[in-house]
Amino acid sequence: MARTSIFSPKFMLTSTSTKSLISFSSLLPSRPLQCKRDLTIAKVASMPYQPLNQEYLEEEFSGHGVTFESIGESCVAKMEIENGSTASLVLPSGLITSYKAQMWHEGTLELLHTSVTEAEDEEDAIIQGGISLPLSFVSDDGQAPWSPTSWSLHNVTGSPSDTIKIEMISNDSEGKIRLKNIVTLEQDMLSSELVVSNSKSSPLRLYGGVMGHLTVSSPDAIYALGLEGSNFYDKRPIATEFVITPPRYGDESQPGYGQVYGKMTLQALASTIGALNQSDEGVAESRRGFYYESEEDGEEGEEDDSYKQLTDEMCRIYTCAPRVFTILDRGKRNSMTVGRAGFEELYLMSPGSVHEFYSRYAYILVGQTAMLKPIIIAAGDEWRGGYYIHNPNL
């Protein structure tokens, strides 16, 4: 199979404008409340960078409801609204690792799923999950494709009484592509807004998107509401530096494949968990590079379920879907609304319910993407897109 790299060979673990996106709130009800392309990511050595200076960040950007904490050569920025909602992101990777939303019972609930594992050298930790940006930009000027590998903090605005914004910036080596990521925390919503400025003399093609791991009790308890009538392609899961995928995804020979815990014997359940854990031990946690490959289309269909249960393994790219839909978790007795702007594709992946409840694989992955068809950004033009998680449980 022919494979061409469109992602920078460097990927490490480690955004405000006067024109805003369409208000996500306006898309909500009145509140009381395999296609032809696959993206695969492989592993790279981390790029060298200067350690972030926590004291400088606190002096320069404190006072808006944001605090900073150094962790090795990285730094965690924590946003906190007075009603108790918080969000955390890591610099320079730009990974959003946490969104704790205030609930009706006056407590908070974590809505993002993050996994921390030990690296091979046993000195560093590998962080996966959360909300990440596997993006790649391709132009026709002969230059190599570019992908954002590290982010610098540009500005912090707002107030903990209402809204806090953190703006990060990443540029290509020539300074011709400027990418902003504006992370906004409100009392009932977290958003990631992308702004791409193309200063090249030729158009840019944007591939990839925004990938968000939503934590759940078990995929068996999860229902996607509002997707009935949407067109989709079934595909293999995207693999990136930060995306979590079960190592034996799609292996129909694994114990308990396609079964729900409630329908399994205790012996089958123990066998399933043991086999998965053993498989995990032999899986390399870090993958480098981002590859673009052409394959025959996966199965194409139309969603016929308005109350879709995500029990089974599934990975779909919806090419025609609502810009806002609801995820209901009957195990945790909460719901969240996910929306997008700018991106035309909805990526929905469930690892299935053969895994232990509240485990590393107790999540669903919802992405806003340009994987089947790239977004074209004309020379000298600007493009905006966004990913939103709304909490209706206040």
UniProtKB/TrEMBL annotation:
CC per GO annotation: cytoplasm
InterPro entries: Gal_mutarotase_sf_dom (IPR011013), GH-type_carb-bd (IPR014718)
Record-level GO BP terms: carbohydrate metabolic process
Top-level division of the source organism's lineage: Eukaryota
One Gene Ontology molecular-function label: carbohydrate binding
Protein known as: NDH-dependent cyclic electron flow 5
Gene name of the record: NDF5
